Amino acid sequence: AKMAAEASDLLTGWCLFGLALLAILIFCWVYVRKYQSRRESEVVSTITAIFALAVALITSALLPVDIFLVSYMKNQNGTFKVWADANVSRQIEDTVLYGYYTLYSIILFCVFLWIPFVYFYYEEKEEDDGNTCSQVKTALKYTLAFITICAVLLLIGAFVPLDIPNKKNSTEWEKVKLLFEEFGSSHGLTALSFSISSLTVIGMLAAITYTAYGMSALPLNLIKGTTSASYERLENTEDIEEVEQHLQRIKSKCRDGRPLSSRDRRTLQQLEERLRTLRRRERHLESIEKSWWTKFCEAIRPLKIVWGVFFIIVALLFTVSLFLSNLDKALHSAGFDSGFIILGTNLTNPLNMLLPVLQRVFPLDYILITTIVMYFIFTSMAGIRNMGIWFFWTRLYKIRRGKTRPQALLFLCMILLLIVLHTSYMIYSLAPQYVMYGSQKYLVQVRCIFLLFPFNLDQCIVTRTYLFLHKFWFFSAAYYFGNWAFIAVFLIGLIVSCCKGKKSVIEGEVDDDDSDMSDDELSVYYH
């Protein structure tokens, strides 16, 4: 009966993982199709975006599986289960490790080869319509730079030793031989870990920019809601009348045949563009006001407020936990040279207290970890959607429903891939013991008494995630300082979001540079 119960729990875990994979694929297809432009959509870019987004979400889902498998090898009394001998444990560890190998290799392939090639191909297609061979050659030329960067990172990670023995009488050949021996003993893990850690630092910068802002903007937007479509139509009609009157006053100056001054001509052109934009807004607002989706959103407005309050509480919980975890590292770690790594926990944070309580009821702790990971992903999406895609102070693309260009979707998916890599370290910062050991316990005999402790470095199995996270101390130090920056940006974003008023019901949907043909793209969502 006990073996049957264990098999049932294991089967339940894998079934949940399978359902999560199916849900991820469906969500990626719906999300990409929702935001991509109907006029500029391409099959290859659409498939690339869906695949990259799915890889990002599947990689994030591997962390709860890793924690579940190392926890499942032990009983609640701290002893290993009958089937979990050394060989079986090693097989499970290797299976998870190969899963990380595969997904991280796919991420490297997407970031350094596939996404750049598709992006540059469509950039060239816009400039040179017709010659496909020329477009492919140009795209490959630019992609070669990304491949070179990837090769350099792999070589650095493969052949730069972490610990160099201090032997004064060693020859240069012995040092080179040591490099190859270390590369062979690590089976490429160090090279892959260095490359992934380098991308994780970039993902950390993206998380500081987009995720931190999304964690504050998403809940407050749900709480505050949007302005009424009918009220905006009334204001828009008044603006149209005002612009038309201004136009009439300028045009009246040339009724007697006199030419307009250069200043009046510029003003006339600006007013005509303004009038076209206002009329497009009028058409969109009219469509929204009559749509069934608007009526449905108004009906569930109380539910949105509840979700907004819940999300802001979760965001504050994460921020407090991250602050206490970083403060613990600042006070009790060995400092910068060790990457601010600590094996124990001296300052308990709320999340680290909650997870051991949920461990008593399977699978509540894994559901919470999965929810946290998904929360980071969705707040990142919200941050990118609200801010757009920026390169320093220049906005490259906007993410708009039904009007997002293929290149913008590719950028979006690449940013999410990088943020997902940093998510694992964020979760580790929030609950370090749980991410390292899960719910494992171990027994210690003191005289004739057995005492049960939460974890032990020698008697418990470490998750494969931890091995990837802390291979290089200088990356851990960068993550530590990145956490402080994340907290600061979140607080700034919270203040800014609180001071801002309600969003327009069509915010970001109508811009001055839109064409009249783009109005038809949103009709799918409003009728």
TrEMBL record:
An individual GO BP term: protein localization to lysosome
InterPro entries for the chain: LMBD1_LysCbl_Transport (IPR050854), LMBR1-like_membr_prot (IPR006876)
GO CC, one annotated term: lysosomal membrane
Coiled coil spans: 261-288
Keyword Cell membrane part of the UniProt annotation: no
Subcellular location: Lysosome membrane
Membrane topology field: Multi-pass membrane protein
Family statement: Belongs to the LIMR family. LMBRD1 subfamily.
Record protein name field: Lysosomal cobalamin transport escort protein LMBD1
Organism: Sylvietta virens (Green crombec)
Name of encoding gene: Lmbrd1
